[in-house]
Hints:
Layout: H1 5-33, H2 37-40, H3 55-63, H4 66-97, H5 101-113, H6 118-131, H7 138-163, H8 166-174, H9 179-190, H10 192-208, H11 211-216, H12 225-229, H13 241-274
Amino acid sequence: MRTSRPARIGQYTALLAYLVFLAFPFLWLLSTAFKPPRELGSLHPTWIPRDPTLDNFRQAFDEQPLLHAALNSLIAALGAAVIAVLIATPMAYVVARRRTRLAKAVTGWVVVSQAFPFVLLIIPLFLVLKNLRLINSVPGLVLVYVVWALPFALWMLAGYVRAVPPELEEAAAVDGAGRVRTLVSVTAPLLAPGIVATGLFAFITAWNEFFFALVLLKTPEKQTLPVVLTHFIGAEGVADLGPLAAAAFLATLPSLVVFALIQRRITGGMLTGAVKS
């Protein structure tokens, strides 16, 4: 049934309003990053800086070790993404191909686990890392990010596995290939787009994560970029707005670029997982 013209106009208007709502913080951040101090304190702020400057970026790098913090974030995010994908891929294959009660229970647990708040997880994770002597270490943070990203990675990759025709695996079995050989040689190449999308999603999640890094990392040289950004806020709660905006803008760019590259694949994976084969 075709949608009427007033209904389409209403849909597009609602979509445009939503896009404006999402874009407003980033555009205001971009504008603030290039404003000189006198414009930041103006009673009549403007969208476009009257006298744009790069001093906020220079001051941000002078005040805080942004490059070192970005390197820590990169190591943590990249490590978490790679490990999560390596673990989730064979698990997703079993969950998708084995239609047993256990597989259904695992799928249900994956969905339920996403509803757990961070506060419920931080204490047991802290105790586990303490026993493993991984508190205040980037490897410990990687382990936490893997635990956090694994459920969604498993659910997402299971959708891609279900999209692979079982007949291909049956043909490989007829030729004498075992389960592991079939997964590596037949299924995994077809899952490449899904593996890349899942890994990049795990990377984005770890790159932007703040709470776990704040609690687990105490030494300044080991802190990640989101935690270092809080150092631009003084003890009295007064923010150094210009450098903070400049540093936050630079920290946001990698996530935006990566998400722009994979958003279609992420959507495709979700839709594929929702289709019953």
